[in-house]
Amino acid sequence: MAKILFALTNHPKDKTGWETGCYLLEVAVPFLYLKKNGFEIDFVSPLGGEVPVKVCDTKDPKLQAFFSDEDARGRFYHTKSSNEIIPDDYEAIFFPGGHGVMYDIVNNKELTQIARRIYENHGVVCAVCHGGAGLLNIKLSDGSYLIHGKKLTAFSNNEEEAIGTDSKVPFLLESALKEKGAQFSSVANWQSHVVVDGRLITGQNPASDLTMAKELVKALQRSK
């Protein structure tokens, strides 16, 4: 059974008390789809253990399905720390969103090295929404940034402004990705948009999480 690693944030709030955390639907929707298609999933976070969740609608049927899955619940509440991860065990790594990623995962050397190893082992690297921050500092063995020259998407500056968080985030993700040489594209706010560039798969926002998961399955099936 092929294994996929989900890299989740441990960051709950910024210094002002603004809630960051993990956006749970971007974990739940891909998890359920990937598991249904026969993949095994592990969760890792910078500190290990429980992951802070941004306030969400617990009555959402997708979240209820996720938490009714004993395996999903157990792995989510007891994430592995990076030193427990053997990168060669995984065929893909996925960075879900939530503003917390912009605080801890973005500069986490262990997770970026895990992602580099998976990618250079001919694995797939994926991100949705603010999970794109996890891509910013992945350097390949030749010293180049993984995203340099790559086509990708993530939560856009327009979407950040639309929800009033452009003045709260430590940086604007779209702008940061472009500064690292990425070929960024986006569509209208809240519309699904997924970009596939070789073994890099990215989704713009929460509406893109299922399509991204479907593209990941296709990519892993092609590699067999």
TrEMBL record:
Question: What GO cellular-component annotations does this UniProt entry give?
Answer: cytoplasm
Supply the InterPro entries for this chain: Class_I_gatase-like (IPR029062), DJ-1/PfpI (IPR002818), Prot/Nucl_acid_deglycase (IPR050325)
Q: Which Pfam families match?
A: DJ-1_PfpI
Q: Where is the DJ-1/PfpI domain?
A: 25-218
Record's keyword terms, sorted: Glutamine amidotransferase, Lyase, Stress response, Transferase
Checking CDD domains in the record gives:
GATase1_Hsp31_like
- One example GO MF annotation: glyoxalase III activity
State which residue ranges cross the membrane: none
One GO biological-process annotation of the entry reads:
methylglyoxal catabolic process to D-lactate via S-lactoyl-glutathione
Name the SUPFAM superfamilies for this protein.
Answer: Class I glutamine amidotransferase-like
Q: Which family does it belong to?
A: Belongs to the peptidase C56 family. HSP31-like subfamily.
Stated name of the protein: Type 1 glutamine amidotransferase domain-containing protein
